[in-house]
Specification:
By secondary structure, the protein is of the alpha/beta class. It contains seven helices and eight strands. Strands 3-2-1-4-7 form a five-stranded mixed sheet, sandwiched between helices. The protein has a three-stranded mixed sheet with strand order 5-8-6. Strand 1, helix 1 and strand 2 form a beta-alpha-beta unit. The two termini are about 25 Å apart.
Length: about 220
């Protein structure tokens, strides 16, 4: 079993993907402890060809999940679930194909951080990043245990928003300040209209009790 599965959905962005993979390869210490799982459309032959060649030379395990093309961004929950079905990591890291890791030995730092966290593994972890809303989980890290109990990474296309809300309600949100990732896009996606106010309105107390009750039941 690997320690971390990095989940990267991608479509026809080979140039960006090369840079992303280079950053992971160059910044990872225990390369035998991670795997990268790609979700690729069946008609995206260029990316499939690139990854088939890349995995022959990579020191990191590369898994390619080829899928029927869905509704793009709208299909994120199904795509992630399908990718996770091919993974073996104890922790799942939702990454993008235009991100770069800027911290040497990030995996050692993450392993050390996990040792200080609740043993039930029910929490959201996320690194620092280069966009405006510094406390937003641009990269989301959850345990495979969380996924096994819920049978999904998230319900909706706004993966980061959903996990952030759940982690706030559970008081299980942990930012790793000494791991840094950069997102290639200049536009701050976490400040798009509709997301800026996502957490502003009052949350129904019954919702809090329901979520807390569900995760408490995992420990029974």
């Amino acid at each position: 079993m690997k320690k971390f599965s990095i989940l990267i959905p991608s479509r026809k962005r080979v140039a960006l993907l090369k840079e992303t993979l280079l950053s992971i390869e160059s910044q990872t210490h225990y390369k035998n402890q991670i795997e990268i799982v790609f979700g690729i459309d069946i008609d995206d032959l260029d990316t499939q060809k690139f990854l088939n060649e890349y995995q022959k030379e990579s020191d990191i395990a590369i898994i390619v999940k080829v899928m029927e093309r869905g509704r793009g961004y709208q299909d994120a929950p199904n795509r992630l679930k399908s990718m996770i079905s091919k993974s073996s990591g104890e922790y799942l890291i939702h990454f993008a194909d235009d991100m770069k890791i800027h911290t040497k030995n990030w995996d050692i730092i993450l392993i050390d951080k996990i040792k200080t966290l609740p043993m039930d593994k029910i929490y959201l972890l996320y690194p620092a990043h280069n966009q405006m809303n510094s406390n937003w989980p641009l990269v989301q890290i959850i345990s495979k245990r969380w996924f096994d109990f819920t049978s999904k990474f998230t319900n909706c296309i706004e993966t980061d928003t959903e996990l952030l809300i759940i982690s706030i309600l559970l008081n299980r949100r942990f930012k790793i300040e000494n791991i840094k990732i950069n997102h290639a896009q200049e536009r701050d996606q976490t400040f798009e209209e509709g997301r800026k106010t996502m957490l502003v309105n009052e949350i129904n107390p019954n919702s809090i009790l329901s979520i807390k009750g569900f995760f408490s039941s995992l420990m029974d």
